[in-house]
Amino acid sequence: LYLGSAASANEAALDKLAITHVVSVVERNLQPPFGREHLLCQIPDSDDADLAPVLRETAPFIEAALRGGGRVLVHCERGASRSVSVVCAHLMR
């Protein structure tokens, strides 16, 4: 399970780490990374954004990927808030 910013979701980095699944927790629409399973969770980067629906959506995706031997990158724009919350929630399960 990897954590990063939008910049870390580039093709070269994904290839180097053999990432098979990407979770994008961002406000904007993104193109899915080529050749990888992708979950796009569009949510604003604000203090009052409700992360509960995102956590319910990402949990089974991450769990299934890891259970199947996949490598998952969870990222938001800066890798400092939304993606960290998703990874922490997964680790606390």
UniProtKB/TrEMBL annotation:
Gene3D superfamilies xrefs: Protein tyrosine phosphatase superfamily (3.90.190.10)
Keywords: Hydrolase, Protein phosphatase
A molecular-function term among this protein's GO annotations: protein tyrosine phosphatase activity
Domain of life: Eukaryota
GO annotations of cellular component type: cytoplasm
CDD domains, sorted: DSP
InterPro entries, sorted: Dual-sp_phosphatase_cat-dom, Prot-tyrosine_phosphatase-like, Tyr_Pase_dom, TYR_PHOSPHATASE_DUAL_dom
Enzyme class: hydrolase
A single BP term in Gene Ontology: negative regulation of MAPK cascade
Pfam families in the cross-refs: DSPc (PF00782)
UniProt domain Tyrosine-protein phosphatase: residue ranges: 1-93
Domain (Tyrosine specific protein phosphatases) ranges: 49-93
Enzyme Commission number(s) of this protein: 3.1.3.48
Family: Belongs to the protein-tyrosine phosphatase family. Non-receptor class dual specificity subfamily.
PANTHER family: DUAL SPECIFICITY PROTEIN PHOSPHATASE, DUAL SPECIFICITY PROTEIN PHOSPHATASE MPK3
Protein name as it appears in the record: protein-tyrosine-phosphatase
